Each structure stands twice: as structure tokens, then as C-alpha cells.
Amino acid sequence: MIRKKLGFDWRQSVKRADGIVKRLTAGINFLFKKNGVELIIGRAKIISEHTVRVDNQLLETENIIIASGSVQEKINILLPENILVEISELFKDRQIPENIVVLGQTSVAVELAQFFNLIDKKVTMLVPGKNIMPLADIYISEYMKGILIKSGIKIIFDVEPDLKNYDYKEAALTDGLTKTPCDMLINSKMRKGIIPESDIQINIENGFIVTDENLCTNIPSIYAIGDVNGKSYFAHIASSEGLHVINHLKGVEEKIDFKKFPLNMYTVPEVAQIGYTEKEIKENSINYKVSEFSLSANAKAMAEGDNTGFIRILSDNKYGEVIGVQIVAPHATDMISEAAAFIQVESTVYDVAKTAHAHPTISEIFMEAGFEAVDKSDS
After folding, report:
1. What is d(CA 257, CA 280) in angstroms, rounded to the nearest whole number?
2. Which of 90, 206, 209, 315 has the most beta carbons within 10 angstroms of its beta carbon?
3. What CATH number has the domain bearing residue 282?
4. pTM
5. 294-322 pLDDT tens trace
């Protein structure tokens, strides 16, 4: 029998991804038509508080919602053609070289580093700071750092490649002391808002549009949602912000609580969290406890041979209310929805422990962590 070596086809993966994007885009266009939403494609400029110009067309409106997204910060270093790649340009028909350098500290940077590592490329992460995944609890960040290093990904912290030079002869980034082999540098730096052109002054701070608790700008008729306001980079949160603005305009007054939105990170294994981090709890002087349950003791995870990870439940000692949940596990980004439901209705660890879970399932770790929290004495 002839055994074929398992390989990875970049062109096929890009083709498949493009196909999925086209299907989803077509679905959005269908929903626009179904709900009577007019789509105008062109370059927009805000002319006044109630006027937008798209190319040569003027649109009068009572309110304007800016949802223009964000883009990676630019890298100020002269590099050879095809060496520096922006994420928006990465997924094209191209040859993938041997030495990949990912610049950034976000979960997206980690996802990219892991991806190229999984297809047998030599990967280095250049991190402009001391930690990866800055939105995650430091416990999660340190755990994932260990996984990256164990997999063979080199991580260099406190690096700013804007100050580096490129050694053409050795195809490497250099600061005069060290050299990092680099055939492709992927820019995954922190993002800044895409600020639309405007004839009126909309307040900007640190590269994002400033908004209040109802996502309104300094102009009462203009709102900003999604990446452009800097409150979150996640699509599901942008959607919730859009719904909040519409409700607000219709007179429905409610508070938008960003701690009740899950944060998903599509790493290997997946990472998800919701609520307060341990650092934030300490800063708020809350008397709390942490209950943790490992996947290594979960029946389904053991049977599937993928039992790396855990769940952590953070709860206050006064009432036992769940105020934070962190999951590292396969399908953590799906499992976090259960935690979102617990936090939304202000459940306690007693509620978590009493919630029946089918056996064997990965989600049983919720119940086990709940039992662990109930059994643990207050400290």
C-alpha cells in the first residue's frame, strides 16, 4: 500500500474561504432587499449633522451611524516587495515562504502564528509589549504563551520592528545585535479606527471616535459602533452595539454592559472568556474565589484524545454570583454562551452546580467547576 504524506494546499484553502465569504455576503444582500434597506456603494463623506454625500449623491437623514471598522497600524520600516504583508492582503494566491514573522500581541496574531506553525513553517512572534492576548486574563495569557513556546514558536517581547532594519543578504530583521530570519512579515499590530471624511468636527482620541454610554459622538445626531469607536474588535459586539443604538433612537433606554459579552479567540485550543478578569476583580476590591476544573478529568475529552484545557469560574464570596468565566478547550468559543447566560441572569455558583449536563459532554466542566466552588470554603 502506498501512503501519501498529509499536506496543506494554500491555494485550495484560500479558494474555499473566498467561496464562504461570497455566500455570506450574498446572504446579507438578500436580507437588505428583504427588509427594504437601500445599499449604495461609493466613497462617503459627512457633510453636516444630517447630510452624507456618497460620490455625487447627497443623502439627508435624521441620524447617522458610523460603522467603518478598523485597520492595523502601519509599520514604519522599508522592506522588500512581498516581504511586508497586511492581514487584508494575506489570503491571496501566493507561495508561502519558510520563515514567517508575525508582528503583534492580539489573539489574531497568536492565531496566525499557530496556523503557520501547524503547516510546518518556522514562526517568530514579535510582541510590542510584555504579554500576548492583552484582553485575556493574565492566567490565560501565560497558559497560551506556554503552549506557543512548546509548539516551537519563538516569541520576542518588548520589540518594535519600526526601529529595525532589514538585512537583504541574510533575509532577516536586525536591530544591530540580533537577527530574526524573515521571508514574510505579517502586520498584526493593534488596530485603529477607519475615520470617515467629514466637514464637521467629530471627536477622536487615540485613533478612535469618542462615544458616550449610548455610543453617541459629540454630535447628537451621529453615532459610532463597532471597531471604529475602540470599545471592542468583535463582530458580535458590534452587532449588539447597532441594536442598542436603534433601541436608543426608538426611546428604549437600557445600559450596554460590555462585561456581558463573550470574548472569543480562535487559537489552538480555543480560548473564550466573559465578565471580569482576576486583575479587574482585585482592582475593584471584591472578595472572590476561583474554581477551576481541568479537561484532563473530563470523560469526553479523554475519549476524544484532546483534553488540554480547563474552565475557571470567578465568583464573589458574598452571594456566590458568577462574575467571570474563562475557558480553554476545543469549542470554547461555543461553550462560552452558557457562561453568558449564567452572567446575564446573575446566576450563582449554586445555580451552576445544580444545572444538569448530559454525560459525556465537554460542557460538564461547568457543573464540576460549580461543585468545586460550592465546596471550597471562603477565603
Report:
1. 15
2. 315
3. 3.30.390.30
4. 0.91
5. 999 999 999 999 999 999 999 999 999 99
